[in-house]
Amino acid sequence: MNLHRAGTIDRPHTHDPQKQDPMSTTTSEPAGSATTDFPTAGAYASRQNRTLEMQLMPEALARAHMHEQLREAERERRAIHLVSARRMQRRAERVSRRARRALAMAVMQ
Questions:
Q1: 89-107 b/e with 16+ CB inside 10 Å = b?
Q2: Residue 40: CA count within 13 A, CB half-sphere
Q3: By CB atoms within 10 Å of each CB, which of 25, 36, 46, 80 scores lowest?
Q4: What span, in angstroms and rounded, lies between the C-alpha atoms of 49 and 14?
Q5: What is the pLDDT of residue 55?
Q6: At 50, phi and psi to the nearest 5?
Q7: What is the Cα–Cα distance from 32 to 107, expressed in whole angstroms?
Q8: What is the distance between the alpha carbons of residues 25 and 33, in angstroms, rounded to a whole number?
């Protein structure tokens, strides 16, 4: 017996059609039908969930990207507001120094 031949113990592999094991069919099922050894309802639901998740992934990615852009825009607005507030504070300090100088000059005269 050749041990290197591919196949299984029940159906050894051969290329000669006359030596091939004929397929046996049972009378309880029609020829060509596939019977399931385990219930596939859970597998089908799981597969449907996965396909739904796969279909919704681009939406979730777009939503996450949009939220990230909104957060970035808010950070930029805050930074611009802070720069503007500092500029106005420096201007107010300059005006205050000028007013103090003008008051001192008025008092001295």
A1: eeeeeeeeeeeeeeeeeee
A2: 7
A3: 36
A4: 42
A5: 85
A6: -65, -40
A7: 112
A8: 10
pLDDT, mean of residues 48-54:
77
pLDDT of residue 70: 97
Distance of CA 74 to the CA centre of its chain: 24
Question: Residue 7 in 3-state DSSP?
Answer: strand
b/e 29-66 (16+ beta carbons within 10 angstroms → b): eeeeeeeeeeeeeeeeeeeeeeeeeeeeeeeeeeeeee
Q: Which residue has the tokens 């397929």?
A: 23
DSSP assignment of 24-90: P--TTS-TT----SS--HHHHHHHHHHHHHHHHHHHHHHHHHHHHHHHHHHHHHHHHHHHHHHHHHH
Which amino acid is located at 24 in the chain? Answer: S
Residue whose structure tokens are 């591919």: 6
Cβ 36 vs Cβ 43: under 8 Å: no
